Amino acid sequence: MAGTQHIWYATYGSNLNEDRLMCYIKGGAPTPNHEPHPGCRVQKIPSANSWSHIPYELYFSGVSQSWGGAPAYISPEVVNLSQTEVRLYRLEQSQFEDVFAQENGLQQGDIWLNDDLTEIIGMHPAAKYSKLIRLGDYNGEPAMTFTSPDRLEPGVPSALYLSMFVEGFRQGGWYERDIKEYLLSLPGVDEETVSAAMKM
After folding, report:
1. Mean pLDDT over residues 165-187, rounded?
2. Is the Cβ–Cβ distance between 50 and 125 less than 8 Å?
3. From the CB of residue 200, how many other CB atoms can be counted at a distance below 10 Å?
4. Does the pLDDT of residue 75 top 50, yes or no?
5. Averaged pLDDT for residues 115-136
6. Which terminal Cβ of the chain has fewer Cβ within 10 Å, N or C?
């Protein structure tokens, strides 16, 4: 394939906040609770970003010690009538692979996409975000995300974690009332946690 392959990474969790995503790209930690990420082999900022929604159901599961609550996942299969908001970042293929790796506690270069971009090579099947989801094309280039291959037990997110959503939506120019309405529509999220997240 001539030139550099680009992929639109569709994120639905804390990486809605571009500053948080940049910790995966350039290295660093989003909060003092996190161990620093090593960063990507290519540390360029995304060449573009946009917003859309996908027909997968967002939910929270498990407990992240760094976030103090449950992180986000989407259903492994399409769920009719679901509308999960995503922020799409245009990344080089190696950047997408390295973000994917770091989300699973791996290092840059540990995993890679096969030639037709349908399978991730080198991923441990027990990794929490091991399922690659191809979302079709966006602006003529492949759009992808990842989640657990199984539907996990529901959990409750922390205000700190949801504050990443809040900041991401603010970066996207969302109105405060729309941010609150979307967050309250998510399972396991209550008004007290949303109010705290919006004040961080």
Report:
1. 98
2. no
3. 11
4. yes
5. 93
6. N
Mean pLDDT score across all residues of the chain: 95
The encoded tokens of residue 67 equal: 């976030």
Two structure tokens written together for 198: 């919006």
Return d(Cα 172, Cα 163) in angstroms, integer.
14
- What value does the mean pLDDT take over residues 7-35? 96
List alpha helices for the chain, DSSP H. Answer: 18-26, 93-103, 159-171, 176-184, 191-198
Pairing of strands 141-147, 131-138: antiparallel
In CATH terms, the fold of domain 6-153 is Hypothetical upf0131 protein ytfp (3.10.490)
Note the pLDDT of residue 3: 62
DSSP structural state of residue 15: G
Contacts of 151 (CB under 8 A, 6+ apart): 75, 76
In order of 12, 19, 36, 66, 164, the CA distances from 28 in angstroms are 20, 10, 4, 14, 16
Residue type, 51: W
Domain ranges of the chain: 6-153
Measured torsion, CA atoms of residues 67, 185, 152, 118, in degrees rounded to the nearest 10: -90
Q: Is the pTM of this model over 0.90?
A: yes
Residue 95 in this model has a pLDDT that exceeds 60: yes
**Nearest Cα to Cα of residue 123 among 134, 107, 144:** 107
